[in-house]
Amino acid sequence: MCSQGETELAAFWDRCDLPGSSRQAAMRAYRHFWDLIQARRAEDRLMGRVDEDDFYLKHLADSLAVLLAWPELFAGPVKLADVGAGAGLPGLVLAIALPEIHLTAIESNHRKARFIRLAARELALADRVEVIDRRSRELAHDPAHRGRYELLTARAVAKTDKLIRDCRRLLAPGGSAVFYKTPAAVVEEMPLAQPEARRHHLELMTSAVIELPCSAGKRQFIRLCAA
Questions:
Q1: Per-position pLDDT tens, the chain of length 227
Q2: CA–CA separation, 2 and 82 (whole Å)
Q3: By C-alpha distance, which of 116, 83, 82 is closest to 102?
Q4: What are the structural domain ranges in the chain?
Q5: Angle value at C-alpha 55, between 51 and 59, nearest 5 degrees
Q6: For 4-225, CATH number?
Q7: pTM value?
Q8: For the chain, where are the alpha helices, taking DSSP H only?
């Protein structure tokens, strides 16, 4: 039997214009992902206590919400770097939904990095997921990663001006970084983020505010565009 959260996530999947033909398989994968997090949450310190419905609405649906902001960023094969990947949100969630994503999860916490590797294997994503347990600002100076990524995401990691400083060198020419924010955080952070972006000849834009299902919250995104 589906939980309310799973039912609402399936409806949100359709709202994101994701293929109906892959919805059922994705819901199975997300259910397995929840089970994995529950099994390892305390030992690997993945996240605070959260019930199943909140996980589906405030974490899974929230991770997918970027597809409502700029769906064109995810059209076709994409090299995605998820900075401060945590328990795999949003990176693994997006990789489940979009089979053409090749994900590099950047997570300096070794326990969380270990969990992402485990989850990628369990979810049959290992051939499309690389996990690097280093900090993004270190990788930005590594020739193997500098200028490599067409798309970068960061959710609940740092303020926007710091993310720009730490992550901008990871972007390929013409690439974009998308930062998950609340509407209040956008208002608070843009005054410092705009001059930081201009200093490096980069452009910032904001998305419309997106309502999560069941009044689970509001999400807004800041997008950094590389020349």
A1: 468 899 999 999 999 999 999 999 999 999 999 999 988 776 757 777 788 999 999 999 999 999 999 999 999 899 999 999 999 999 999 999 999 999 999 999 999 999 999 999 999 999 999 999 999 999 999 999 999 999 999 998 999 999 999 999 999 999 999 999 999 999 999 999 999 999 999 999 999 999 999 999 999 999 999 97
A2: 29
A3: 82
A4: 4-225
A5: 150
A6: 3.40.50.150
A7: 0.95
A8: 4-15, 23-44, 52-54, 62-64, 66-69, 91-97, 110-122, 136-139, 160-167, 183-199
